[in-house]
Design a protein that fits this description.
Blueprint lengths: L7 E3 L1 H6 L6 H16 L4 E4 H13 L4 H11 L4 E2 L3 H14 L3 H12 L4 E3 L13 E3 L4
Helix pairs in contact: 3-4, 5-6
Length: 140
């Protein structure tokens, strides 16, 4: 991993659990992960895709747009991977190699592009090493 690059990449579901009143244990754990991202600024990355998914899902949960927009602006100080043609092409390779949906492959490609060694997510196989990017389910 290049010096100074984020060690962890956070998937949307982790951020969403911080707002999930129906899963209190997951909410506590998700909040701890997010707090780590603030304590060690620059060591936890997200992507534009994560921010887009966060907006759509929080709006479905009836969180106010003002609160959602503020959260997105706040999180945008973390390392954020842009959706680019290069990321899409990387994702197409990841999709075929690991038999992932395009959206999961985009997350993996974004994590790989910033040199993250861990992908913090509930959606991937816990403990699976995706050629240098380890999927970690913090709720296990």
């Amino acid at each position: 991993m290049p010096a100074g690059s984020p060690r962890r990449f956070v998937d949307t579901n982790i951020l969403l659990y911080a707002y999930d009143l129906e899963s209190p244990q997951k909410r506590i754990r998700a909040k701890l992960i997010i707090e780590e991202g603030w304590r060690i600024l620059g060591k936890m990355a997200i992507s534009v895709q994560v921010l887009q998914e966060l907006e759509v899902n929080l709006e479905r949960k009836k969180v106010s747009r003002g609160e959602i927009h503020q959260l997105i602006y706040d999180l945008s100080v973390w390392p954020v991977v842009d959706n680019t043609l290069m990321i899409l092409k990387m994702a197409l390779s990841e999709q075929v190699r690991w038999q992932l949906s395009l959206w999961d492959a985009m997350i993996l490609a974004a994590a790989r592009s910033v040199g993250a060694s861990e992908l913090v997510t509930e959606d991937f196989s816990h403990g699976q090493n995706y050629d240098g990017v380890l999927a970690v389910n913090p709720f296990r």
